[in-house]
Amino acid sequence: MGPSGSGKSTLLHMLAGLDRPTSGEVYLGETETTGLNDKALTLLRRDRIGFIFQSFNLLPTMTAAENIVLPMRIAGRRPDEHWVASIVATVGLEDRLRHRPAELSGGQQQRVAAARALASRPDIVFADEPTGALDSRSGLELLRFLRRAVSELGQTVVMVTHDPTAASYADRILFLADGRVVGERQAATAEEILDHMKSLGA
Amino acid sequence: MLTATLRGMFAHKLRLVLTTASIALGVAFLAGTLILTSTMALAFDQLFGKVSSGTDAVVRTTAPYTAQDGVGTSRAPISASVLPTVRKVDGVRAAEGSVSGYALLTDNDGKAVLTKGGAPTMGYSMPSDEKLRGDVGLLSGHAPHGAHEVAIDATSAEQHHIALGSTIEVLFRGPTREFTVVGTVGFGGEKDLGGTTSAYFDVPTAQRVLGTPGHFDTIDVSAEDGVSQTELAKRLDAVAPPGAEAVTGEAVAQESSDAIKENLKFVSVLFLIFAGIALFVGSFIIWNTFTMTVTQRAREIALLRAIGATRRQVLRSLLVEALVLGAVASAVGLGLGLAVAKGLKVLMDVVGFSLPSTSLQVAPSTIWISLLVGTLVTVVAALVPARRATKVLPVEALRESTPGAEKPSARRAVIGLAVAGAGAGAMLWSLYGGADMKVFGLGLLASMVGVMVALPIVVRPLSTVIGMPLRMRGLPGELAEQNAVRNPRRTSATAAALMVGLTLVVSMSVFASSLKASFGDVISDQTNADLFVTTASTQADGFSPSVIAAVRAVPGVDQVSANGWGEARFAGASSSFSAVDPTNAEEVMNLGVSQGAVGDLGKDGVVVSRAVANRHSWSVGDEVPAEFAASGKQQLHWWASTPQGVDR
Fold first, then answer.
1. In this structure, what is the dihedral angle of CA atoms B447, B449, B453, B459, given to the nearest 10 degrees?
2. Does ipTM top 0.90?
3. Architecture of A8-201 per CATH?
4. Contacts of residue A38 in chain B, CB cutoff 8 Å?
5. Alpha carbon of A90: minimum distance to chain B alpha carbons (Å)
6. Chain segment B551-560, per-residue pLDDT in tens
7. Is the pLDDT of residue A200 over 80?
């Protein structure tokens, strides 16, 4: 969590193997991702990482169901039907599966993106400002879903946000400013987070 | 991934249709040409097969060498004295001499019956043996008998209302004669032979008006039942006098058909060039479309890369798209090709190369060549944009702004200029250095590709210059200029497509006007003549010498100089030659004689170009070995040299 320009997204890109740091090392579990070549990094993203982007990033030509299983189709694996069905049920998209992204609301699209990120049982899900393009009600629904994924499904989620409400759903919050980690809090309410932000700004 | 690819294609229907059309058009031309070519081949094979179907073997003189002039190799006539020998051969049912030559029909008003598009006007002997006539059949009346009867092709009779029993004049190389039309002739269902006008006479008359009395062009033989063509030809060959040979009827039909196909080859080549041009333009459209696609889909591609698609998968998905597009477009093109072939056939009819009617032939090779070429062109054209797609970084999926254009690299400029330079060099080499014309084509291609590669570099300076007057128009002008400069690659891609189109248009019009100009130049450079009197058909071998007197008698005519031309071998090399009238050739033609005098030519003199004389180091009076298809080897004497061709 941190203000604009604090380097949140850059950090996330490096952690997720989308970008390379000029110095330092990134580990995903036991794997040092900074030493991998493009192909190995691609396969690592495919098999071990899930993504949720601010702008949904769904393929416009495919239905919701097809978008959800896309990473597994790319990997050439058969999706686990039961698991996918349970995730779809959790995000409440059962009756929208045959629709194209253009026929879905922003909140529904982002839930499709969340389902896609979780469908392949990744080690870790990276979410870059997932509520940034949503209205507050859709945003809350998505945050509740991510919270349940962590609590009930045991999914690790790393989320970047500048919204204290979003941050209040996390177990652990890191504060960034000007490219440095400037603070750390365990679970906190939105007010506490806001206060902490103000103290950093001062 | 395949689903994603196909869905992506159908998401842009208009673009899909346009790109499909661009490739389909090229393939349609290609397929149309191939279909027409095989249709033509079959039609002529059938036609000549039918016409000579009654002839099992042919006895003729051996040709001194094979030369393609008109239909088949020209050879000397065979003496009529061979005929009795042939008739005595075991297995010969009937044998007759055959003669053909130039014969121009006239209609009831004495006007010439002309052919379209240079088809010849021919006269033939009609065998009295019905079987030897093959598929040449009388549609009405009876076969000509005696010195005053003629049968003509049904087309000429119908189109010029020449009724049976009417008297017409027929023009030959010798004196013009009058004949009574006693029959009309068809050719195995056709009313004429590929646009040719035909006049049939009995054999003695044909010898007199078309050939030489006492000689035949060939002796046609019909076998008794149970004697094969090959067997018959073998037996005949055994009795043939020296300098004569016997061949099977099938072989002769094939020779005639091949000769016609050879003559019509230029048509296929011309159409194939069109097809090539269309495909070249098509490949540009494909390249452009895929470049656009990749740019537009950069975010999608980045997303696929982010969630785990490898570079190879991205490349493959785009190439599959190109493959599907190319294959579908080629299939559409193949279908259109049938229509194109029909259209070309009609076109050829209109200009006078009327083809014998046969249903359109789609050979298996036509199908796979069309599909393969169309698909390959599409995939190759998509290769560069597809490779660029693999360079899209996964982070771009997360960026909100569209990626900025990469700066054109200096390496690119160097490569582009090098390729363009090499291409220009190749073109100059073939123009002035004597290299093959194919080198020119390759050079042209290379320099165009080179310019396209280097183009992004010059977009900025060029746009600045072109934009100068625009900036004076205020903000809109400035914005226009900046937009052109913003993405040099896109600007240059659009400009390149335009460049190719313009190159084609300009080259076509330059070609057409230089063709016109060079004909004019040749005629005005080489002659002082004010008027030319020529045969109605370019394929005719000449007209009666009596024409010279007729022309000379016209008031206002000062000089008349007869000319003839043909092909022969001089000092071992094939060359065209002209026969001139030594008495006044220099007055009528700009020969520019540099040594000797044309007036000295005499009966066996030859005028050659200076270059040839120098090459053989001939001097005036030297012998020039020459070989003519019809009359064999002759020794000529070199009397004069000109800057131009070989003349006798």
1. 70
2. no
3. 3-Layer(aba) Sandwich (3.40)
4. 311
5. 22
6. 888 888 888 8
7. no
